[in-house]
Amino acid sequence: MQCHCVRQFGLKLVRRRPLEPIAESESRLSRCLNTLDLVALGVGSTLGAGVYILVGEVARDKAGPAIVICFLVASLSCMLSGICYAEFGARVPGSGSAYLYIYVTVGQLCAFITGWNLILSYVIGTASVSRAWSSALDSLIGDHISQALQRTFPLHLPHFLAKYPDFFALGLVLLFTGVLTVGAGESALVNKVFTGLNLLVLSFIIISGIIKGDPHNWKLTEEDYKPNISGSNDSSGLGPLGAGGFVPFGFDGVFQGAATCFYAFVGFDVIATTGEEAQNPQRSIPLGIVVSLFICFLAYFGVSASLTLMVPYYQIHPASSLPQAFLHVGWGPARYVVAAGTLCALTSSLLGVMFPMPRVIYSMADDGLLFRGLAHIHARTRTPVMATLASGILAGLMALFFELHDLVDLMSIGTLLAYSLVAFSVLVLRYQQDENLSKTKKTEKGTEMESVVEASPLDTAPEAGTSKILKSLCYPPRTIPTQTSGRIVYGCALLLVLLLIILSVILAQWPRRVFSGDPGLTTVAVLLLLLITGVAAIIWRQPQSLSPLHFKVPALPVVPLVSIFVNIYLMIQMTSRTWAQFGVWNIIGFMIYFGYGIRHSLENSEQWPAGSFHFPDS
Asked: From what superkingdom does this record's organism come (predicted)?
């Protein structure tokens, strides 16, 4: 009896949301967003203030002119996650983004962990961007706001709290919370305006670099920068000089810079939360993700090329690289255009990071995993008003009191975890038995056809021995997925994740020893690669679903596996303090899930809301 109870409890943790709702109807949210709206949301949330700040820091200290290669590598890495999201956007047109995708594939507990950490990421992101907006404006007017608040409301509290309450950042968050409650269409319009202005400023910067840039700055030698430090024993003001040339810090610097630049592309997942508000989600979501990532790559590539052409990399000012670059080439007044672009970028980024936050909360509450009151939809605007207000107030309070520099890595863990689980879900789901195809054939051709589609000798006939099982792994007897082939893929995928974690730890902790030919570590790394290749080949040999989709991830299982590896490798780089904070946040989440969510989940009553999604049959 006790074993039965434990088994029942375990089954609750892996319950999956059904592929089709019991009662089909239109979305409860307003379907008012077209493809251009989704592209603007993706670009606005991704192309934030980082393009004005990050470019200078990476070019000066890590990569030099080779920063353009850094952004190319980072964009390709992030595109792997993006196209995994794109396939799920075509499969599952609902709110909730990664939370929803994982719910239908992996199960309830993993979905809750993903959604809970996405909420944290969006809250920290909102508070960080609002404080950055306040700081940018404050610096433009001579720091009068910060000085006045610090004199009037000093906070003598622990170091993780701010020196003064940033009421401007709080007001900014509450203002945009109000915009979001008005309607998705109105929010998208505001975002398009500021994103368009930001792109215009970036275009001006790129064209300026073409006009005023000097190609010689991409092939500097020691003879070029020695005159700058002659007569001085201290060259620290010029930063690390490197060896000159296009790649002054070697390929180590390129890869370090690419790891930093990867986070510049984080934000496209906002598009995946619009499934119930997009007019044609199966087409618009994949297209929006791919196009927005490509636009962001062009912008980052163009700005970094322009900056390093206008200014020698070792003379770049990291804190205000673009304004100082225009001063360097004699276009001083252009720095005001850059300042305006920074504020526009921060505005669209703030709206972009705030937009998905209530959608994830609404989706989790609608499923019963969070408090059901958060799923309330405003009758007129058809927006998740309670989730919007709750998330806006929480983010506003964090922006008011907290210094968020130490929490940025915590935000990255939640995002990378979601990216990894979505890639895993794509890898698993493509090889599962196609329930919709079976049901369609049953409707059209009767019970006899259903038995032909769903029956499988692999599922019904007893195995003749181990040799037959091993043979079936490489030569499956069926050309369509079966229950057994789906389980094989699931088990192999879990094994691959474990192997990739071990390989990532080895490469992160002892990279030089591995690549220098250390007998022990190099042998282990090679064996892991061979084992990963073998298990991936088993997955590759299994039959895939034939359901037509508007977008499918190419080159399975390679693309999801590379995406998972990149994300895990970046997560391992986080500090132990960040992982401790991550653990505390998840303990709070487990208390909510086991105290409320597991008992109030709609899976308990097998009833799903009218706005639930279904997989498309075509």
From this structure: Eukaryota
